[in-house]
Design goal:
The chain is α/β, with parallel strands linked by helices and 342 residues long. It has one domain. The chain has nine helices and ten strands. The strands form two sheets. It has an eight-stranded mixed β-sheet, sandwiched between helices. A two-stranded antiparallel ribbon has the order 9-10. Strand 4, helix 4 and strand 5 form a beta-alpha-beta unit. The radius of gyration is 20 Å and the shape is globular. The N and C termini lie far apart (42 Å).
């Protein structure tokens, strides 16, 4: 039997030189133990049932209890995707292993209800949204076309996703303003500052633009380290939505997997301060620690197609939003040296 999942746009596209893209691709995705097609179809039916019933249940639930219901739905959906949730709280003592919640039963949350918090996390794939919401319901800044996806589109709408079109740099200030307004209203908003998905064993630089919303509203920032582990406790890349991957192939891969764990590690909270670049660096250091990216991405450079261009947000005198100049982004000898370093 074959699992059929309606398709959606592929994982990445490049519209302009400043648009982040990752070098991750099919070679990054490693297989794990799989279940049979029958069980996978059962999981798919469970996902469909949850997505169909959630809007009705959410409406009839009293306002004061909706967060508990939404959290329960997210955790059930995560289980239907074949994943267990593990939450690790390292906010009290960052040098320790942290308080571990294996079953997701403890009240380990991003912040008190009604208090604005910006949650910052590296982006691996579409399952990130489910894993993060399973800890505590929150809104997201996500790719604009997600609302049109056949499986997650309705869920994205109900979660009040703030759409971002990475192809339109001029629209970025409006997105920052929307995030700021939601934070000021006491919402929890998750952002993916890398601007694109990576496989989980590699990662990109955190772009500072969206951090401005936290600074403007004096909102604390919660860095989150998200990992997916296989049944043996090793980090796996099955949920990575990278390269030319489509939603259909990604969903089949996730639904067939056995014994995966979504590990959400809450790192020490960062106060916003007054400099978005400094805030981005602090959050990146909190999330990555001493971990090295598989692809060895150099600081200050982002992948753009088959070349690398300087990230304009790194330079102190460069605005986040501007038209890329027409000059060659790197000298020929610099590209050769960069390729040798990899």
């Amino acid at each position: 039997m074959r699992i059929v999942v309606f398709d959606a746009p592929s994982a990445q596209a490049t519209a302009h030189a400043w648009m982040p893209s990752s070098p991750c691709g099919p070679g990054c995705i490693e297989t794990v133990d799989e279940i049979g097609a029958g069980r996978a179809i059962g999981r798919l039916l469970g996902v469909a049932g949850l997505l169909i019933s959630f809007p009705v249940v959410n409406v009839v639930t009293p306002q004061g209890k909706r967060e508990t219901v939404q959290r329960g739905y997210a955790r059930t959906l995560l289980r239907c995707l074949g994943m267990e949730l593990r939450t690790v709280d390292r906010r009290i003592d960052p040098n320790a292993r942290g308080a571990v919640d294996e079953g997701g039963t403890a009240r380990c949350v991003y912040g008190p209800s009604g208090t604005g918090v910006m949650v910052v996390v590296g982006h691996i794939g579409w399952t990130d949204i489910v894993a993060l919401a399973a800890v505590q319901p929150l809104g997201f800044v996500a790719r604009a076309d997600m609302v049109d996806w056949p499986v997650l589109g309705k869920l994205a709408t109900l979660m009040r996703v703030i759409p971002i079109e990475r192809e339109r740099l001029r629209a970025l200030p409006g997105v920052v303003a929307q995030v700021g307004a939601r934070l000021a209203a006491g919402d929890r908003i998750a952002v993916f500052p890398e601007g694109t998905t990576w496989c989980g064993r590699a990662y990109g630089r955190m772009r500072p633009a969206l951090f401005q919303a936290a600074i403007d509203t004096a909102t604390p920032v919660q860095p989150v380290r998200l990992r997916y582990l296989d049944r043996h406790g090793n980090q796996c890349t099955v949920p990575g939505f990278v390269g030319d991957d489509s939603f259909a192939s990604s969903a089949r891969r996730v639904l067939r997997s056995r014994g995966m764990v979504a590990e959400v590690v809450l790192e020490p909270v960062q106060q916003p301060g007054a400099d978005r670049r400094d805030l981005a660096r602090r959050c990146e250091a909190a999330i990555r620690g001493a971990e090295l990216s598989r692809h060895g991405v150099a600081a200050g450079w982002i992948a753009a197609g088959n070349t690398r261009v300087q990230d304009p947000s790194i330079a102190a005198d460069a605005p986040e939003i501007r038209r890329p100049n027409r000059r060659r982004p790197m000298l020929r000898r610099e590209r050769r040296a960069d390729a040798t370093a990899e």
